[in-house]
Design brief:
Elements (H helix, E strand, L loop, with lengths): L10 H15 L8 E2 L25 E7 L3 H12 L5 E4 L8 H4 L11 H4 L3 H4 L10 H14 L12 E6 L4 E5 L4 E9 L9 E2 L10 E4 L5 H4 L15 E5 L3 H13 L2 E6 L5 E2 L8 H7 L4 H13 L12 H14 L8 H26 L3 H6 L12 E2 L3 H4 L5 E5 L7 E2 L3 E4 L2 E4 L2 E4 L9 H5 L3 E2 L6 H4 L18 E3 L12 H21 L4 E4 L1 H12 L24 H5 L8 H14 L5 E4 L2
Parallel strand pairs: 2-3, 2-6, 4-18, 6-19, 8-17, 9-10, 9-17, 10-13, 11-12
Antiparallel strand pairs: 1-7, 4-5, 5-6, 14-15, 15-16, 20-21
Helix pairs in contact: 2-17, 11-12, 17-20
The protein binds NADPH dihydro-nicotinamide-adenine-dinucleotide phosphate.
The site of NADPH dihydro-nicotinamide-adenine-dinucleotide phosphate has 27 residues, from α8.
Keywords: FAD, Flavoprotein, Monooxygenase, NADP, Oxidoreductase
Cofactor: FAD
Pfam families: Pyr_redox_3
Length: 600
């Protein structure tokens, strides 16, 4: 008998508890509760890792300009180079390649999805990840490896922020924060879904007299230690507050706990923290799997398992595929006449109750203090928030000097000159670390910090005023020779973002190659093709991760209905596997259906 089937599980009581916990957290200001890091908060964005080097502004022309030097830019650049497009310029505000892995060097950072599917171009670059879940320095080094392997450093512009993109007919004009004004026949945009850090919108952040920083700009000069795991020896006499308990905090709290004199972890909503089971890669085993085409096989297998497709083999076997495996087993046990949608949804809910009961039981088994254990339990369905996996996070609350400050869903009240106030009590600290996440769900042009001015002077922000509109999540009508590299309106595979990017990169490389080979100066999605794609997207079940029944968070726009805009933040109606199969067929058919190529 499974946990969920046991008579002791009162499903209605659980549903009620989930609703109560959600209702405590709903607030009218939604996303507006957070502070943008502009003006007096801009110092939170400074690059602590690489000194700025002076250079003359660029006024030349390139074939492809790519905005963003993270995985999106790297995989697209790689596919373009493989297709013989040499003249690729990647622009990034960071001091090197890496994107999220450039900025996020907090202690304990590691990938949350198995390295073999998460780290792109492993086969092409010949790298064997050293662990099932590689740590951040190895991933950053892999980004550099891709950059070197494909010669992407030669033309790259770092510490450079694109501020304007304007279509001049046949080419784009790109202006940057460094005074560049160069042109490119094609532009591609891969700014990342989570790249603008945000702070809680509470009073007094400015008044704090101690030290503070955001986790994505970790200040090792203050804490001591380094991203590779050297102990943070400058914290041994420090009282430290960390605000937030999302995926970032789950990874860095275990490193902070033994290092600080006192650590206060301020929690608004607990994360669900399941088993990680990380382990070093056995080179002998790796040699047996790394046969030609291995990474594609692993990617497809992970996506199939994670999205519940019928498949007998689970190569990755981890927490991401576990829930889908359970749901599938329940559905397969149904007699054919009970194969109905309500029964499938019930199978999903039962598996979820079972899983979450196990995760809550794990808290009780690990955390010694009963009140702390109770407060660390997550009361929502597993996919309502980013699921977390860690083998040392819960244990950190047993370390003397580590205190969970649960705010009952209300968040911290304010910051003062001396510390942090929660539940009316002031906690005096020397340092406040904001693990408060990144902007999600705000408009693209706000997060990008530039707007695209396309054909006939139309702005992307106007074209998308009623929500995102694309063909395949890549092309936008009215914006010729511009490509998006991101998951939405495409596969929308949230558990493994790089898989989405690699496919987009391959699609763009084929399209650019075709244009260059035939002397086309322009390529653009037709209005009809874009309309048809949007209609197809709207025919699906809607945003799967944004149920209003969930506790608020960035998965569901902080619990606020986004209306039509929200309904467009979806993937292919038949799921990620269907999109990948479709786009592969679209690429290989060479018919470029939906695109118009022109010579001007
Ligand atoms: P999140 O947005 O997930 O977490 C922010 C945290 O800050 C939440 O716990 C939030 O509480 C809390 N918070 C916000 N305002 C307040 C307040 N006023 N008082 C107290 N707490 C507050 O950010 P993360 O940086 O943790 O993670 C962002 C995403 O980055 C992840 O979801 C994941 O997609 C990605 N990530 C991936 C990793 C990987 O692959 N290895 C590792 C880390 C992150 P509440 O939940 O109530 O809103």
């Amino acid at each position: 008998m499974t946990v969920a089937d046991r008579p002791s599980i009162d499903k209605e009581a659980l549903r009620r508890k989930y609703r109560e916990e959600r209702d405590k957290r709903l607030r009218p200001d939604g996303n507006d509760q957070y502070l943008r890091l502009t003006g007096r908060f801009a110092h939170y964005l400074e690059d602590p890792y690489t000194p700025l080097t002076e250079r003359a502004p660029k006024t030349d022309h390139v074939t492809v300009a790519f905005v963003g030097g993270g995985f999106a830019g790297l995989v697209t650049g790689a596919r373009l180079k493989e297709a013989g497009v040499e003249d690729v310029r990647i622009i990034d505000k960071a001091g090197d390649f890496g994107g999220t892995w450039y900025w996020n060097r907090y202690p304990g950072a590691q990938c949350d999805t198995a390295s073999f599917v998460y780290m792109p171009l492993l086969e092409e670059t010949g790298h064997m990840p050293t662990e099932k879940y590689a740590h951040a320095p190895e991933i950053l080094e892999h980004c550099r490896r891709i950059g070197k392997h494909y010669g992407l450093y030669d033309n790259a512009l770092f510490h450079t922020e694109v501020v304007a993109l304007e279509w001049l007919g046949g080419r784009w004009l790109i202006r940057t924060s460094r005074g560049d004004a160069f042109t490119a026949q094609f532009v591609a945009l891969g700014i990342g879904p989570l790249h603008v850090p945000k702070l809680p919108g509470i009073q007094g952040i400015d008044d704090f007299a101690g030290h503070s920083f955001h986790t994505s700009r970790w200040d090792y000069a203050y804490t001591g230690g380094d991203p590779s795991g050297a102990p943070m020896d400058r914290l041994s006499d420090k009282r430290v507050a960390i605000i937030g308990t999302g995926a970032t905090a789950v990874q860095c709290v275990p490193r902070l706990a033994p290092a600080c004199a006192e650590l206060y972890v301020f929690q608004r909503t607990p994360s669900s923290v399941d088993v990680r089971d990380n382990r070093p890669t056995d080179p002998g085993w790796f040699a047996t799997i790394a046969t030609p085409g291995w990474q594609r096989r692993w990617l497809e297998n992970f996506t199939a398992n994670q999205t519940g497709a019928l498949t007998d083999e689970d190569l990755v076997m981890d927490g991401w595929t576990d829930l889908a495996r359970r749901v599938r087993a329940r559905i397969m046990a149904l007699p054919p006449e009970e194969f109905t949608q309500p029964n499938m949804l019930a199978a999903f809910e039962d598996s979820d109750f079972e899983k979450m009961e196990e995760i809550r039981a794990r808290v009780d088994a690990i955390v010694e203090d009963r009140e702390t254990a109770q407060n660390l339990k997550a009361w929502y369905r597993q996919l309502c928030k980013r699921p977390c996996f860690h083998d040392e996070y819960l244990q950190a609350f047993n370390v003397p000097g580590t205190h969970l400050v649960d705010t009952g869903g209300q968040g911290v009240d304010r910051v003062t000159a001396k510390g942090v106030v929660a539940g009316g009590r002031e906690y005096e600290v020397d340092c406040v670390i904001y693990a408060s996440g990144f902007e999600v769900g705000t408009d693209y042009t706000r997060r990008a910090n530039y707007d695209l001015v396309g054909r006939d002077g139309v702005r992307l922000s106007d074209h998308w005023a009623e929500g995102m509109r694309t063909l395949h999540g890549i092309h936008v009508h009215g914006f010729p020779n511009a490509f998006l590299v991101q998951p939405t309106q495409a596969a929308n595979l949230i558990s493994n973002i790089p898989h989405n990017l690699t496919e987009a990169g391959a699609t763009i490389a084929v399209t650019v190659r075709h244009a260059l080979d035939h002397g086309y100066t322009e390529v653009e999605a037709t209005r009809q093709a874009e309309d048809d794609w949007v209609e197809l997207l709207l025919s699906g079940p809607g945003p799967l991760l944004s149920s209003p029944d969930c506790t608020p968070g960035y998965y569901n726009n902080e619990g606020r209905d986004l209306g039509r805009k929200g309904r467009l933040n979806v993937g292919h109606p038949h799921g990620a596997m269907a999109y990948f199969a479709y786009i592969d067929q679209w690429r290989t058919s060479s018919t470029f259906e939906g695109l118009e190529f022109r010579k001007k």
